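Note to self: keep these together.
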Amino acid sequence: MLGPNLETYGGNRFTMAALVLTAAVCAAGGYQACQATPRTHGLLLISVISSALAAVGFFHLRSLRVTLHTDGISYHSLFREKEMRWDQVERFDYWAVKRSVNFIPVGTYYRFRLRDQDGQKICMGNRFERPANLGERLVQQSTPHLLRKTMERYNQGESVDFGAIKVSRDAGIRVRRLFGYRKIAWNQVANCAIQKGHFYIWRAGEKRTTGPALSQVRNAFVLLALLQSIVQSKTPTAG
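Structure:
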């Protein structure tokens, strides 16, 4: 059992409303197919199947519930239940992609995935209400535990793999590119940030740079905290 609840998130209400509307439209189409002479069996079959799928989607979203606890997270849906302690989390993947239609912004697509030491996963995203807020809370709760583990490995001289970015005390930072890696020594690092869905690292005197998408960086917010602590300490370990 996990500790006291901090906050609970249910299914996305806008999506549930859209599914209800879809089911109603499909049901109306099915009714019209029944009244038609002769009956249009193809339209009737499509209407019944579409209504059923919309209903299943609605009840699935209605059953969704993620609760953040002081010491972990619990996940409940129509099909499964899971729990994971914060100190068991080994990886937190965060995606945030802005979507547009004909250059008109239509919203941001979020996806979050927690993975523990046994390979168990909890996935979340726009299926839940207030996904941006949920993502922020997941970052706040998971980062301290992951950062402690990462700092221990880094201080022991291990190379820490963040996917598109690798960090070590001796070799500095390596950022994966289309061909090979961009190497940055610790005494060249000026700043780092997560902006517009990408992870950026600036060299000293550099005003513009490129960086991998967050979808390519494991534990991106842990990496950010690690680099900021190293840069701010002003004690580079490699030249």
